[in-house]
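REVIEWER CHECKLIST
Item 1: Sequence provided? yes
Item 2: Single chain? yes
Item 3: Sequence as submitted:
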Amino acid sequence: MGIQERKEREKERRRHQIMVAAKRVFSGKGFNKTTIEDIAREAELSPGTLYLYFKNKDDLYASLSLSILQYLLIRLEHIKSEKKLNPEQKLQALKEAMYGVYEFDPLILINMFHLQSSETLKNLSPQLLSEIKNLSQKCLEGIANIFEYGIKHKAFINKNSLALANIIWALFSGIVLWIESKRIIHNENNDLKQALETAFEIFFKGIQK
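Item 4: Structure as written out by the authors:
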């Protein structure tokens, strides 16, 4: 292994160390109460070292979203590769993939949905913002591909597939955030899976011919 490769591996290892620490601190204290110093202490690094890898706290917070988008993209690519599935089965696989994303890491998913509608995006480094935009677009295109498949096989109504992808994503994020808000404000532990099942069933029936 060359010197440059060792440096890159060490850089990636340190970056991962910081992100793991940040996730623990954000989970325990919340975004607003967390400081870079808190994260540095958890990671057993100096605050200055953190700034070598992340522009600011917003940048670090948003970086956690990349793993969620990458995981979803893998699930969507798997659905696309399953040639034997009919349109209805692909919709079922999409529903399972989206719930799987929630199970993969609920905290990061909820943070990502909050991020989408906040001013935080304006504070990100251009590189990170580009990564998030690129992955988000690929995920939406992957979802749109499922709807396009159903339209092509005359199983779904002929509507813009990307618009349908945006609608199902908005539906997903809205339900997750609503269930989470009820848990925090009203101390209600509603069944997210059941809520998604009902919402997706109504939506899917609406697009089927």
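Item 5: Key structural point noted by reviewer: The two ends are 58 Å apart (CA to CA).
Item 6: Recommendation: ____
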